Amino acid sequence: MGLNKNKNFVVYILIGLVCFNIIVWLTVYDLNKPKFLQVNFFDVGQGDAIFIETPQNHQILIDGGPSSVVLEKLNNEMPFWDRSLDLIILTHPEHDHIAGLIEVLKRYKVENILWTGVVRNTSEYNEWIRLIKNEEAEIFIAQMGQKIIAGRVVFNVLYPFENLNSQEIKNINNTSIILRFFLGETSFLFTGDAFKSVERKLVNKGKNINSDVLKVGHHGSKTSTAEEFISEVSPEIAVISAGKDNRYGHPHQETLATLKKYDIKILRTDKDNDIKIISDGENLTIK
């Protein structure tokens, strides 16, 4: 009996050592991977969810889509032992942006949260408020002029122009956080669901919105993507996050026509599934 116990103990030790070695080797492999900026546009159906990994391993999630599908997507991109995020950004508290973030907050440790603080009368909004209070993360209210530095990647908040905290605003889409970020010579512009009226205000403000990659506003709806805005951004690549066969008819033919007029490469999650764009600071690669 004692001999069997000793044998079992040795087996358990060996199994433990094997598991430990696997984790060590996976960690070494991860640390030795080439360090690029990776921007993942997840196919989460009719909604937005963008996961960013910087060369210094900062992990940032912008919006979470309309369901828990984002959890599966994160599992595919992050090591199984990693259950923390450096920053989550909620562009605006609509269902197709906030629902997935609620699920993320339940399962991940989040260090920082950036959002607008606008008020909504929905059960999802109330759950969001409850969870971010319990999370004990550092919370920031977005406003033009803010800068986020994640190693070599710099994020600039371009909109909203003023602090919207505790305000109840009818057109929630037009409260969307608009971000431009860059690594070296490569740049990205994210516009949430902001309408053409906001896009035109950005153009009139004279802010630098020229970017290599544009996350097209409002899932390609005709409410966004003003021609003068596209002319100013002058992107090489436009990414549209939309659900396959969605009931809204996104992306709209008017939006697609505007992008094609400027000879912009169009990528769509409803057709291309998950889209990953990698930057080394000089060049962009699409996977």
Give a topology summary.
Elements: H1 2-31, E1 37-41, E2 50-53, E3 59-62, H2 69-77, E4 84-89, H3 95-107, E5 109-115, H4 123-135, E6 138-141, E7 147-150, E8 153-159, E9 178-183, E10 186-190, H5 196-205, E11 213-215, H6 227-233, E12 237-240, H7 253-261, E13 265-268, H8 269-272, E14 275-279, E15 284-286
Helix pairs in contact: 3-4
Can you describe this structure in just a few lines?
By secondary structure, this protein is an alpha/beta fold.
Q: How is this structure best described in words?
A:
With 287 residues, the chain is α/β, with parallel strands linked by helices. The protein has two domains: 1-33; 36-286, Ribonuclease Z/Hydroxyacylglutathione hydrolase-like (Metallo-beta-lactamase, Chain A). It has helices at residues 2-31, 69-77, 95-107, 123-135, 196-205, 227-233, 253-261, 269-272; strands spanning 37-41, 50-53, 59-62, 84-89, 109-115, 138-141, 147-150, 153-159, 178-183, 186-190, 213-215, 237-240, 265-268, 275-279, 284-286. It has an eight-stranded mixed sheet, covered by helices on one side. A seven-stranded mixed sheet has the order 7-8-9-10-11-12-13. α3 (95-107) runs parallel beside α4.
Largest sheet: 8 strands, mixed
SSE order: HEEEHEHEHEEEEEHEHEHEHEE
Instruction: Quote the average pLDDT.
Output: 91
Strand content: 15-25%
Highlighted features:
single chain, 287 residues, alpha/beta, Metallo-beta-lactamase, Chain A, 2 domains, 8 helices, globular
